[in-house]
Each structure stands twice: as structure tokens, then as C-alpha cells.
Amino acid sequence: MRCANLLVGNSESEPVLELTLFGPQIAFDNPAIVAVTGANLSPKLDGASVENWTSFSVPAGGILSFGGPVAGARSYLSFAGGIRSSSVAEVMGSYSTYVPGGFGGLGGRPLKAGDELEIGETNLGEFKQRKFSSPPHFSEDALLRVLLGPQNHLFTDDSIQLMSNSDYQVSVDSDRMGIRLEGAPLTHLNSPDVVSDGTAFGTIQVPGSGLPIILSADRGTTGGYPKIATVISADHSKLGQLLPGNTVRFSVVSREMALKALREQERILDSLRDVPTVSSVVKVSGEIIDAVDEAGQTVPLNDVGYRFNASVRHGEHVENVEIKIED
């Protein structure tokens, strides 16, 4: 979603359309600049194929359609200027549609034939095509990196190994609440019940059956089953592309590895941003610090690999420190 918006010059949080599997047919009354990211659902403009992960112009009267999935399950369609329909509701800071609750988006429901959306005005004369050069690859076999916890201590050591070494298949019972997996069951040390606590996107719950459930966008805010691990943020995009029958494998990583993966992801997105958001890690005498200006704003430092020696004075005391900038 964020990439789709950046490709057309929007802010990253502008509402977009999420298209599942076969997608809609959309007629444009006025010229527009759009981008399609995520799954390859075979997008076509007036019958001719167009590229994913690239912005392109649509003439007045143009028809955007989709031929069906090649890889992945969900695409994201952005419009330069954003969606401006007064009937599209922002709820709790989001334009997302929560269908089970019937709120958000357009009337809290999926779009249907005949719906109309107003989008921002576009000046095609100023249009410059943008392309995302490092898109993710989605396949039928997904490797998901996870952090153990918060309740991995409620499982046997063998179960941790089993989860890491086993292939699981996405069940046909999966939905936007949770991705249910079939495969080797995991063993709880005692009861499969815990006091209900908060859940995060990508949390892996294990009910009494022992079969993992990866909690997704429409999950409950709390859950009463032990949570053995959580999918790292950098791999969240893979979850929305899984289909029944796809294979999932887990790889346990450290917090440092998860943070590095997230930074790498944001660095790739920085190629589309006017102002980069990720700076290099700054270490002073081995300790990570934030470099800030006099107003307290973070200062990007991107001279990776540089080392500096500096003297820091505290009153009459002077201390020599080494400053290192690294990824």
C-alpha cells in the first residue's frame, strides 16, 4: 500500500483499493495517474497489459481490468490525489474497511458493481512515470522470519524445533482474521489456555489442536491461546499474499536481525521518498545513540563505514570517544 502511494506521489497513508485474486473492472470518467502493487493479478489498461510496481496514466474513458492471479493473492491500487469521496469514512485514523463490523471504507462493505469513487484531480502534462526497482517476490512457498514469544515458554523445547523444521500448508479455513496452518501439531507444556492478552498482526497462536494460527488484519484485539512467536514486521507483506495450499516455513531470528530487516525494507522504500527516513546506526564507544539537532530532530547520517574520534568535555573533564557509522 505504501509503495503504491509513493509511486503516484501521494503520502504513504492515503486510502487505496485492495484487490483480491481476480480484481474489478474500473472505468475512469477523467484522466488519472495510478499504480498497482502487490500480487500480479495481470492488470490491463484498455485490454493491453501494464506493469506492476509502476505508475502509469489512464486517459478519460480508460478501463482498467485484471486477468487473474499469476503470483500472490492481493494487489493494491492507488490514485494520484487519493480517494476523495465524502462517503469514504475515516474511522479511528484509518480508511480500512472492517467488513465483520460493518464500518470504515465505503459503508463498511466490499465495493460492488456500480459504485463510484471520486479521486483527486490529475495533470497528465506533469506526469513522470515512476518505477519501483526492488519489488518483493511472492511465491507458493513462503519463508516467514519470526521472533519467539511472548509465551514460547509454555511449549516444549521439541515444539520450538518442530516449528522451525516443518513445512505447514495454508488451510482452506483461513480468512482475514487468521491464517490457519495444517501440519505437525505443537505440544503445550500444560493447558492450551492463558489469560487473554493483546495480539499483534502476525502473532502465532496455538490452540488445543496444536496447529498454529497466524493472526491477521481482522484478528481480535485479545486472544486466550498461547502465542509461541510473532512474524517480524519486514515479512508482514507476505502474509496477505498467502493462498490455501501454499507452503509456510518458519525461521527463528533475533531481535537485532528483525530490526536490520525492517531497516533494509525502509531503505528500499526510501528510493521513492523525497526525503529519506532511514539513517545509519551511530555508535559511540560501542553504544547506539541517536544523532539529533538542537531542536531534538533526528539527523540522517548515511556515510556508512566511517569512524571518527571526538573529544567530549563535561566541565573540566574531557573524554575521548570513537564514533562509528554502520548499517
From TrEMBL:
Record domain Carboxyltransferase: where: 1-268
UniProtKB keywords: ATP-binding, Hydrolase, Nucleotide-binding
InterPro entries: CT_A_B, Cyclophilin-like_dom_sf, PxpC
An example Gene Ontology molecular-function term: hydrolase activity
Alphabetized Gene3D superfamilies for the sequence: Cyclophilin-like
Pfam families to which the protein is assigned, alphabetical: CT_A_B
Key word Nucleotide-binding present: yes
PANTHER family xrefs: 5-OXOPROLINASE SUBUNIT C (PTHR43309)
Name of the molecule in the record: Carboxyltransferase domain-containing protein
Organism name: marine metagenome
Species lineage: unclassified sequences, metagenomes, ecological metagenomes
